Amino acid sequence: MIWDLHVHFSNFEGRTPHEKMADAIKFADRMSIERFMLYLGFPPHPKDPTPAELTQINDQVLEALQHWHHRAFGFVYLNPNHLEFSLKEFDRCVRDGPMVGVKLWIARKCNTAELDPIIERAAAMNAVIFQHTWVKVTGNYPGECTPSEFAELAARHPDTPLICGHTGGDWEHGIRAIRHLKNVSIGIAGSDPTNGFVEMAVRELGPERILYGSDAGGRSFASQLAKVHGANIPDDAKRLILGENLKRMLAPIFKRKGIKV
Amino acid sequence: MIIDTNVYVSHWPFRRLPGDELPELIAKLREHSVTQAWAGSFDGILHEDVGGVNKRLAETCRRTETRDLLIPFGTVNPTLPDWEEDLRRCREEYNMPGIRLHPSYQGYSLDDPRFADLLRQAAERKMIVQLVLNMEDERTQHPLARVTEPDTGPVLKLLPQIPGLRLVIQNRKREPSGKLLGRLSYQGEVYFDFAMLEGVGAIAKLIEEIPSDRVLFGSHYPFFYFESALLKVKESGLSESQQKAIFSENADLVLEA
Fold this sequence. Notes:
The structure holds two protein chains of two kinds.
Chain A: E1 3-7, H1 17-30, E2 35-38, H2 51-68, E3 72-78, H3 83-95, E4 101-104, H4 116-124, E5 128-134, H5 147-156, E6 162-168, H6 171-178, E7 184-187, H7 197-205, E8 210-211, H8 221-229, H9 235-257
Chain B: E1 2-9, H1 22-31, E2 34-41, H2 43-46, H3 50-62, E3 70-75, H4 83-93, E4 98-101, H5 103-106, H6 113-124, E5 128-132, H7 153-158, E6 166-170, H8 178-187, E7 189-192, H9 202-209, H10 226-235, H11 240-256
Parallel strand pairs in B: 1-2, 2-3, 3-4, 4-5, 5-6, 6-7
């Protein structure tokens, strides 16, 4: 069972969400991916989206889920710079809609207090929370947080499971930054398939805190799956990383929403 | 059966990698039915004693357990004095079929006359030239060892001037830029691997831009997980004949030529 934490519309062919999903499913089937989490709308993705843009983006994901809810789940894209709107958007898409998680990107540094109400609202619904992180030697975007900044957020919410997206890209740095935070899992998507990544993560975090994701279609499913398939770790650890951990994280909100998989 | 044109021996300077010891490397290659691997040396990227690097590489590839599996591709750094002797040794003493260049780590651009001279001499010696554009994502490089992908534009001008040159462009990063790839492939005998190519179905998209006989299997192992390149072939949904060509037939023809 492979569940992919991290898929976007980018690079999939089609003019509509339904057509792009059909293309994505074609590739997912080739790679034996049973389900994937979908977030962000059609590219280009605004780094600091307005409320109108958030609505449009999330509507595209909702439209995609109408036909493909048996293969994908949606995460709502929120912007803490528009806090009140984001909380309402969460209610529309998650509390009252079919989505099961939250995607936070680079609009605002994630260690700032404006994120706290979003985390609390999502935690109250058991929604899975994904925060993008990178630490780039070439320089981060102004609102792009590092794993160390993410760790500050996670420390303020020790009882809420949080996902450190991309493990900071520089995973040797990212794993160290969050390893002391037991409420944090890492997403391994969206970086080069550098040999040793998953082995180090298993050694430092244990296999239960590692989530396979691809960042397809910007990345290939192939290169990101290779991080797990190619890792020198036990098969039961691979099963956890490839899907069982994500399914376990989603179980509370599935139960709340009555979703059976 | 696979011919992997992008494998390294020895140690990456900034981290130990699973597979950077020879027995592990050989086991991984054999596990995936690799019958031949074109091997460069990580040492060749930064070491100045290139003669020592190439001697060790040749010895490694001659060992009983690696013979016929690892084919050595030596290092030549045209910014070093007497690089011509390194090229001569690669061909005449070690019988290497080609060389592997890392211009971004050795501080020269592709419009440097020394690079043109090296290509010319390699072609005269009937050697394959592997031109490595990247070793890793620029964003995750060591902060004290940052390099950028060289501009391959000057290669377009050089190709018509160097008859007989067989050039393999390795580790072009992320998404292919179709126009440049197409022009390179039609200007001369230029081949490409796909170790760093990204995006879903990347190889299928690549062969829309360039002839499929110009695509070589390259894993960038052990820097990358070997399975990445393997799974990219699967993801691209290629026909059986396309897969055979990319897995081995194309590389076989390049080597035989």
